[in-house]
Fold this sequence. Notes:
The protein is α/β, with parallel strands linked by helices. The chain has a single domain (27-202, 270-451), classed as Alkaline Phosphatase, subunit A. It is built from twelve helices and 19 strands. It has helices spanning 9-21, 57-61, 105-108, 127-136, 146-154, 215-236, 240-255, 259-263, 270-276, 284-298, 318-342, 411-421; strands spanning 37-42, 80-83, 90-93, 98-101, 114-121, 164-167, 191-193, 303-307, 349-354, 358-359, 362-364, 374-375, 379-384, 392-394, 396-397, 404-406, 409-410, 431-433, 436-438. Strands 1, 5, 6, 7, 8, 9, 13, 14 and 17 form a nine-stranded mixed beta sheet that branches. A hairpin with a 6-residue loop joins strand 15 and strand 16 (404-406). The longest helix is centred in the C-terminal third of the chain and has 25 residues, at 318-342. It is globular and about 75 Å long. 45% of the residues are buried.
Amino acid sequence: MLQSAACGFGYLALTGLEAARAAPNVSAVHFPARAKRVIFLFMHGGVSQMDSFDYKPSLVKEHGKPLPFNLPGLIRPDRLGKVFAPKWNWRQYGECGQWVSELFPELAKQVDRICFIKSLHTEGEAHGQAVLNLHSGTAALVRPSVGSWVHYGLGSENENMPGFVSIDYPSMHGGVRLYGNAFLPAKHQATPIRLTGTPDRLPQIRYLEDARLSATRQREQLDIVQALNREHLKQAERDERIDGVIASYELAYRMQSVAPEVLDLSRETAATHELYGIGSEPTDGFGRQCLLARRLAEAGVRFVQVSTGYHWDHHGDIEKELPQSAAKTDRPIAALLEDLSSRGLLEDTLVLCAGEFGRTPVAQIDRGAPGRDHNPHGYTIWMAGGGVKPGYSHGATDEFGYLAVENKVHMHDLHATLLHLLGVDHERLTYRYAGRDFRLTDVYGTVVKDILA
Length: 453
């Protein structure tokens, strides 16, 4: 009746509902994976590419002169000044000869492990849009985060630990959407871990343990609660929110015997703490985050997000503030690569280091001492391990570092490539919602095969 009545629209709706009911978890790779897990280091605010890894001698030659072309797409072109040269010296490092600013002396030693993409571009002059594009592939609608897609597709390596963990993620520029599941089943949302601001700077998962009750008593208590949840689910017939509650309670119970040990950074040697810069400033905070990320990856967490905090947005006084940001992160990130490599983990762990956009090659002139404005049209990110070419640089911006002009890589291409390295075809990792098959890359994205090892 539904098929014949009203031109079959009722039948189409029923078909869509049945497809959504049967939507499977992929839980298997589409082809051999080069990486088993991801550590995503988010440089919140947007690192200046021409002050870090994208060497542009033209900025020095043309310093103080008008840029010889227009800057398309800027929200406030009126607040931009003349060509603004970097204030720091550059050198070539490693066998690959990668140029690195003197602000990153420790990462400079790691360039032969790193694959740079110097032609990334995205949409969004504002932080909110660009941050959401990086984390979920779009800013227009509420969509699952990258980590949620990965967990939905591949599950967890350790049933006693979450498959997706978010360390110190910001409440601004997206909040929970940066690690949320959106319309995917609730179990695919990240488990948040707070480290910054906790007592003694120790990692903390809220409500993980209850010292008042024995493990046996907790199990009895949980069995009662879960029985009520399953009865509720039975009455509802299908409700992913209840499924998510049941799964999260069971995972939390299992985590009590495993997670405290994983979170205990004191189990690491003094030499390891020193390697990450723990116990000294300004590296202590981010050093702890990076060390925790390594421990979580080692424990089988599939996707680990780490945020630096919102300190890369250098609209003004970049000469003072950029060195401070670099000093907080350079040593811990280099230590993470060294540590993963020494443990044999870098080969199958993909480390992605990216901000939401880059900066302009001209000075911003409305913030006192000059800085750089937002630039999503061409900037640098990098990856290491997990099947990418080490000591390699892909793509290029123009001679001033503003527009991606060679081997351009869109944000959708980056996401497609990340999934590919995990053995997942981005066009086949779909979830039916509201009558449509959604995917991380929407209807776009091409794998950047040139960076594959």
